[in-house]
């Protein structure tokens, strides 16, 4: 039964396998300092620019402590916090909202609970807000939050359980409703319930939701980070979509933090700290504005970039909701208002 | 499973199969062929062609750039490395399990067969999650691993574990029915002629099942390189470090780099096609041998 074929085949296979193995192992060996930035979904383009600029500046100033790479991991903000809690070795976390970094601090104990006081402006070197992205010409005539609950309007927003952007969306809608209905809680709940009923799918992260709206063509209006909406215009052309600025929105403060236990174990504290501080420098702020995030220091940025940002009336999480420590459990915890009001289509 | 891998070879050499097919009226035959061809074109060929068309959409230069970009290269290397470790492991364990099940009677054999099938019935997400629950920082072994500075999840070992788990059944599942149908008479004959157990294994058992083994390895390898769900959970998605090809494709697509995503996808699809071509070539060359060595 053609016995000789098999041993030859086996030998060839073994040699091939061993070769691949050696190749992979050799290629995997590296030595220089690397940082890992675990971030949320829409910051991919921002940190690509920031990382290149920071590495160039740092390595020029510190030839003895060079950084070879800053690695990036992106996903829904809540999901990313979860992986850091589960042991992903992040030097810094740059997430969508303070509540997610609070969760990392509480559960992993790898950074102090008062982490937000360690850097200026609540540890948020940039802000953003929530706007509407609609199809060109705004065929459903969506002008403000009130138009979202009309029957037949399909809204795209990610899942607030996993996405930071979605939580800002939800709270912005809540803030509008409180103002519109004079803090009548029953009416606010009714409004949010109707809004959620118009959502056909909940993606896990902002970028997935953007793809659903822009590339798959699902939905009439996309509740979006301002930066993500501008990016969509840039990527797909201004002839495809319009940005609608609602009468009221929320000041979104995406914070950054050092993960102390990780940087101490990896001996990268100095580099990681400088990396976060770089975000506040004029150079960092200019890159931030160029990537459609609102810089804390507009004077440092290009005036052309600043002119992009529409004027919006914004509530803050602290004034309207008593901060994330209160808003998170009330609205997004197990059995919170989102759980009470969201009824998936059957 | 093993019956379906060889339809052409077994149909042409087995009189029973062909006579049954000839019993049907020509109209039925034509309809059946048309339906399966249409289905294949629509659901298999069309998406596959789309991958290559999209990949070529921005020209050769863009394609080359997408493939040679450092993160893509790292993803390709990682995918090959994971497969190069997971597949041999599954081959060894698969052969051992299949041998035990096919040639011996023991208590709990049915349980063992069910366990081998477990990865097929469990969703890949769960396959990934169990490793996070076991080896994650908050998991059962997390504190111990951290104390000893060992990394499993969000690193190479986790990727390998998840891949091994998901691809485990392929080799064993191919071998078990074949070994069972062969029985143990050849081995017994070799034993009575004075061959040592190792000699029996390498000269009798292994050559008898080599084709099933080979298909098992091909399927196992294809799945190991293509696995998304389980690997996504344990990867941590660090670019250039723990991103495998399927994860890298998703990332590129989400970054509006459609052409680059499809370029890497075409490479992955290409690897699968190579597997397929290899299998077909072997069938052409050794069709008779394969059919003869597989009587079931």
Any overview of this molecule?
The complex is a heterodimer of chains A (346) and B (296). With 346 residues, chain A is α/β, with parallel strands linked by helices. Chain A has two domains: 33-127 and 254-308, D-Maltodextrin-Binding Protein, domain 2, CATH 3.40.190; 130-251 and 312-341, Periplasmic binding protein-like II (D-Maltodextrin-Binding Protein, domain 2, 3-Layer(aba) Sandwich), CATH 3.40.190. Chain A has 15 helices and twelve strands. Chain A is globular, with a radius of gyration of 23 Å. Chain B is mainly alpha-helical and 296 residues long. Chain B has helices at residues 7-13, 15-22, 26-56, 59-68, 70-103, 109-121, 124-135, 142-147, 156-167, 169-182, 185-192, 197-208, 210-226, 229-235, 245-254, 258-293. Mean pLDDT of chain B is 84; it is low at 1-19. Chain A binds chain B through residues 1-3, 5-6, 9, 13, 17, 20-21, 23-25, 27-28, 36, 44-45, 69, 71-75, 83, 85-89, 107-108, 207-208, 211, 235-236, 265, and chain B through 77-78, 80-81, 83-85, 87-88, 132, 135-139, 142, 146, 149, 151, 153-154, 156, 203, 206-208, 210, 214, 217, 236-241, 251, 253-256, 286, 289, 292-293.
């Amino acid at each position: 039964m053609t016995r000789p074929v098999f041993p030859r085949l086996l030998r060839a296979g073994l040699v091939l396998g061993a070769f691949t193995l050696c190749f992979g192992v050799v290629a995997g060996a590296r030595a220089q300092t690397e940082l890992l930035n675990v971030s949320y979904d829409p910051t991919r383009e921002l940190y690509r620019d920031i990382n290149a600029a920071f590495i160039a500046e740092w390595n020029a100033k510190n030839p003895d402590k060079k950084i070879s790479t800053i690695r990036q991991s992106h996903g829904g903000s809540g999901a990313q916090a979860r992986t850091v809690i589960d042991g992903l070795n992040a030097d810094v976390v740059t997430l969508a909202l303070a509540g997610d970094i609070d969760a990392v601090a509480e559960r992993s104990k790898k950074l102090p609970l008062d982490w937000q006081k360690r850097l200026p402006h609540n540890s948020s070197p940039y802000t953003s807000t929530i706007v509407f992205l609609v199809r060109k010409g705004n065929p459903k005539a969506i002008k403000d939050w009130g138009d979202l609950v009309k029957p037949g309007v399909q809204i795209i927003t990610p899942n607030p359980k996993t996405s930071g952007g979605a939580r800002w969306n939800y709270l912005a809608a809540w803030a509008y409703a409180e103002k519109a209905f004079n803090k009548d809680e029953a009416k606010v709940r009714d409004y949010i319930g109707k809004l959620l009923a118009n959502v056909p799918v909940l993606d896990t992260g902002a970028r997935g939701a953007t793809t659903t709206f822009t590339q798959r063509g699902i939905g009439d209006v996309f509740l979006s980070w301002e930066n993500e909406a501008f990016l969509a215009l840039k990527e797909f052309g201004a002839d495809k979509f319009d940005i609608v600025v609602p009468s009221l929105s929320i000041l979104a403060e995406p914070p950054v933090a050092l993960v102390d236990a990780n940087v101490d174990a990896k001996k990268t504290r100095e580099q990681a700290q400088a990396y976060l501080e770089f975000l506040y420098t004029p150079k960092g702020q200019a890159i931030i504005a160029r990537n459609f995030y609102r810089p804390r220091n507009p004077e440092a940025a290009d005036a052309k970039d600043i002119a992009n940002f529409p004027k919006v009336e914004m509530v803050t999480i602290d004034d309207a909701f008593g901060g994330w420590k209160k808003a998170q459990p009330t609205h997004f915890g197990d059995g919170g208002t989102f759980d009470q009001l969201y009824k998936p289509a059957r | 499973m093993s019956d379906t891998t060889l339809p052409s070879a077994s149909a042409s050499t087995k009189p029973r199969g062909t006579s049954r097919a000839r019993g049907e009226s020509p109209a039925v035959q034509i309809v059946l062929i048309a339906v399966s061809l249409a289905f294949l074109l629509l659901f298999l060929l069309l998406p596959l062609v789309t991958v290559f068309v999209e990949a070529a959409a921005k020209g050769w230069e863009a394609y080359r750039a997408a493939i040679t970009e450092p993160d893509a290269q790292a993803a390709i290397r990682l995918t090959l490395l994971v497969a190069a470790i997971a597949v041999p492991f599954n081959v060894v364990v698969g052969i051992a399990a299949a041998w035990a099940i096919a040639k011996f009677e023991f208590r709990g054999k049915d349980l063992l067969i069910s366990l081998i099938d477990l990865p097929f019935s469990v969703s890949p997400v769960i396959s990934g999650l169990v490793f996070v629950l076991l080896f994650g920082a908050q998991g059962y072994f997390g504190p111990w691993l951290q104390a000893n500075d060992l990394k499993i999840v969000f690193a190479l070992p986790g990727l390998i574990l998840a891949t091994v788990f998901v691809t485990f059944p392929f080799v064993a599942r191919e071998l078990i029915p074949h070994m069972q149908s062969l029985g143990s008479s050849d081995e017994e004959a070799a034993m009575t002629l004075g061959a040592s157990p190792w000699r029996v294994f390498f000269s009798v058992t292994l050559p008898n099942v080599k084709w099933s083994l080979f298909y098992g390895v091909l399927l196992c390898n294809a799945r190991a390189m293509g696995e998304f769900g389980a690997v996504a959970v344990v990867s941590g998605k660090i670019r250039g470090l723990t991103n495998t090809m399927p994860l890298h494709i998703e990332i590129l697509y989400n970054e509006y780099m459609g052409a680059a995503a499809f370029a890497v996808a075409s490479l992955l699809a290409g690897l699968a096609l190579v597997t397929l071509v290899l299998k077909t070539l072997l069938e052409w060359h050794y069709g008779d041998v394969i059919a003869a060595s597989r009587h079931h």
